Amino acid sequence: MNKLFLTAALAVSLFGGKTLLPESTVAVVNGIAISVDERDKEVGKLLPKAYFHSTVNDEKLKKLQEQALESLIEKTLLYSYALSQNINITESEIDEVMTNLAAGYGSKDALEDAIKRLGFTKATFRDAVKKDEILKKLYKKEIEVEISDRELKEYYNKNMYKFKEPEKIKVRLIHVRNNPEDPEGREKAKKRVDEAFQELQEGADFADVAAKYSTAMSRIKGGDMGYLHRGRLQKAVEDVAFSMDINTTSEIIEQDIGYFVVKVEDKLVSNQLPFEKVKEGLAKDLKEKEESRRKSELLERLTQNSVIVK
């Protein structure tokens, strides 16, 4: 039986008031069954993004399975809605997609090998392509938006404060950490930073001293932290650094986590970014936000009017 026409009554049984699903089914959405196999294929899509090749323990796998199932439920809701809106795709359109995929893989045989590796048959893969293409049409029809130049300019003018580059300083840093587990940790850290500071006063290059004495990762770059805006350093260290002149070095700054010495190499004043410089990024950001809002509203409406059993 085609699962598109599988009724919830056939897919779901009740025992002692508890909802039970057949072993091969993990959810039913408006009578459409979502199988374990479908969920596991979706997990396969998520794994490379989430954990690459690291070991996935049972807890992480369970979370990925839940995430995959929610994604499939959303797709099923949207797919059913698309069909109800008479959004469909012809066999010739599917053929065209398959031809393009084969070209991308280098040949038809290479595509067929990839389909097998993914755990599909030719028929189930073609069905998956059909669903994806129908969802793309739905997205284009009801979710996708284009933000006009007028709307972008209007948003920019109303929110100019969001497009200001903050004041920045180019910093080199010596950070000698205090080991709280060592009873003599602070004393050792102070001795180390004193030695570093003595070498600086004797004219040693700051980068060389940072590489030798700093215990922070930035030591491998001679303490170079690049350009920083406020909020990137310890506040006490930051306050000192932003008050310094270019090409000057601070005194030793003591904090609970250790000792710091800062060198300021350059300063950039706060600057209003012009519209043309932010236009492309702003268009992308506003488009993504509006499309996300539209999709969420549509899914919320569909969920309220659906029967979903997990």
Notes on the structure:
This protein has 11 helices and 12 strands. It has 310 residues and is of the alpha+beta class. It has 3 domains: 142 residues, Triger factor/SurA peptide-binding fold (Orthogonal Bundle), CATH 1.10.4030; 56 residues; 103 residues, Chitinase A, domain 3 (Roll). Strands 6, 7, 8, 9 and 10 form a 5-stranded antiparallel beta sheet that branches. A 3-stranded antiparallel beta sheet has the order 4-3-12. A hairpin with a 2-residue loop joins strand 3 and strand 4. Helix 3 crosses helix 6, helix 7 packs across helix 11 and helix 8 packs antiparallel against helix 9. The protein starts with 7 loop residues before the first helix and ends with a strand. The N terminus is likely disordered.
Which consecutive residue ranges, at least 5 long each, have pLDDT under 50?
1-20
- At CATH level 3, the topology of the largest domain is Triger factor/SurA peptide-binding fold
The helix fraction, in percent, is: 40-55%
Beta content: 15-25%
Q: What is the overall number of helices? A: 11
Straight-line N-to-C gap = 21 Å
Short description:
This protein is of the alpha+beta class and 310 residues long. The protein is built from eleven helices and twelve strands.
Feature tags:
three-stranded antiparallel beta sheet, Triger factor/SurA peptide-binding fold, 12 strands, 310 residues, alpha+beta, single chain, Chitinase A, domain 3
